[in-house]
């Protein structure tokens, strides 16, 4: 994977370690017959922590830094929101107008139990990816 951003403004999505199954369900919808062609046109690679050299217990700061350095949008189930080392604090302290956003699943467990909701989340994910550069500097965005 390149260290510089691709012309699309990002190099892929990184699934947080604690939402792998949820994320796989969303990507399965994105690749389905209904959305597959659109997803393929987006050409967004999908990565897991091990793909980018992060341990499953990586700190929020480390995860955010790797994502920004490699041009990856983090998809999370809402990492720790408290304290100086939380993802929220990291976004606020280190984020700039050029930073890629973090996509947070508003109700991650519902993705696995409600297909209609999961499809809404997948559709919103793809919608946001169509113009990712306009979302730089927004911090955290909730899905759906």
How would you characterize the overall build of this protein?
With 144 residues, the chain is α/β, with parallel strands linked by helices. The chain has one domain: Rossmann fold. Helices cover 40% and strands 13% of the residues. It is built from six helices and five strands, in the order βααβαβαβααβ. The chain has a five-stranded parallel sheet. Helix 1 packs across helix 6. The longest helix is centred in the last third of the chain and has 15 residues. It is globular and about 40 Å long. The protein starts with 11 loop residues before the first strand and ends with a strand. The N terminus is likely disordered.
Q: Count helical runs.
A: 6
Instruction: List the strand order in the largest sheet.
Output: 2-1-3-4-5
User: Ranges with pLDDT <50 over ≥5 residues?
Assistant: 1-8
- The share of residues in helices is 40-55%
Give the percentage of residues in beta strands.
5-15%
Radius of gyration: 14 Å
Number of domains: 1
Could you report the average pLDDT, rounded to the nearest whole number?
A: 91
Given helix and strand content, the structural type is alpha/beta
The ordered string of helix (H) and strand (E) elements is EHHEHEHEHHE
CATH architectural label? 3-Layer(aba) Sandwich
Largest sheet, in brief, is: 5 strands, parallel
The CATH class is Alpha Beta
Shape: globular
Distance between the termini: 28 Å
CATH topology group: Rossmann fold
Number of strands: 5
């Amino acid at each position: 994977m390149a260290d510089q951003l691709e012309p699309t403004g990002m190099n892929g999505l990184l699934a947080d370690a604690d939402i792998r199954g949820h994320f796989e369900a969303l990507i399965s919808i994105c690749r389905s017959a209904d959305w597959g062609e659109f997803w393929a046109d987006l050409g967004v690679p999908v990565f897991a922590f091990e793909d980018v050299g992060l341990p499953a217990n990586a700190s929020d700061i480390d995860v955010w830094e790797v994502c920004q350095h490699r041009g990856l949008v983090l998809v999370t189930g809402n990492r720790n929101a408290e304290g100086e080392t939380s993802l929220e604090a990291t976004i606020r302290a280190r984020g700039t107008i050029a930073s890629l956003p973090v996509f947070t699943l508003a109700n991650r467990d519902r993705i696995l139990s409600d297909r209609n909701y999961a499809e809404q989340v997948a559709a919103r994910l793809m919608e946001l990816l169509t113009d990712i550069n306009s979302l730089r500097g927004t911090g955290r965005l909730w899905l759906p």
